[in-house]
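Session log. Operator J.P. requested a structure for one protein chain; no other inputs attached. Running the standard single-chain path with C-alpha cell output.
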Amino acid sequence: MAVLFLHGAGGFVEDRTMVGALRAGLDDEVLVPNLDEGIATTHEAWSRRVVEHLRADVDVVVGHSFGGSTVLRLLTERDPGIRRLVLLAAPDWGPDGWEVPEFSLPDDADARLPGTLGIELHHCLDDEVVPFEHVQQLGARLPRARVVRHEQGGHQFASPAIDAVVRRL
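Structure written below.
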C-alpha cells in the first residue's frame, strides 16, 4: 500500500522534514507530488492535481495545511476509496475560520464524507500560521473525526509532533 502526502501551499520544499519522517517511519511507499508547480492556488486546480495522484494502492492520505483542507473538501465531492485521512494543521476556511468560500467545506460536510473513512485532525498548540482554534472548529463540524492535539511542533510539525503522527500511522 502507499501513503500520499499533500504539502501545504508553496510548501513542497518546506514540508520535506515531515516527508522524511514519514518515509523513515513507515514501511509503505510515500508519494509526494509537487501540487502547486505551474498551477494556481485554487480549489479546482489543486483538486484536479490531487486526483491525478490518487493511485489504486493509496489507502492513506496525509495532508498538511492547504493540502489537507483541499483533500478534505475534495472528499465531500467524491469518494476515491481511501481508507484513512490524516490532516496536519488544516485551516478552517468557513465563517468561523478564515472565511474564504472557495475553500470552505459545505454545511453538510460530515454527511458527504465516505462512511468508511477514518479521519484524524492533528494540530500543534504553538502553530504560528494556522491558529489552534481552526482544528477545534473542524472537529465540531466533523464529529466522527478524531482531534489530536500536540503541545509543540509549530506549523511544520517539528519533532516530536511528526514522530507521534508517524507512530499513529
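Operator note: The longest helix spans residues 66-77.
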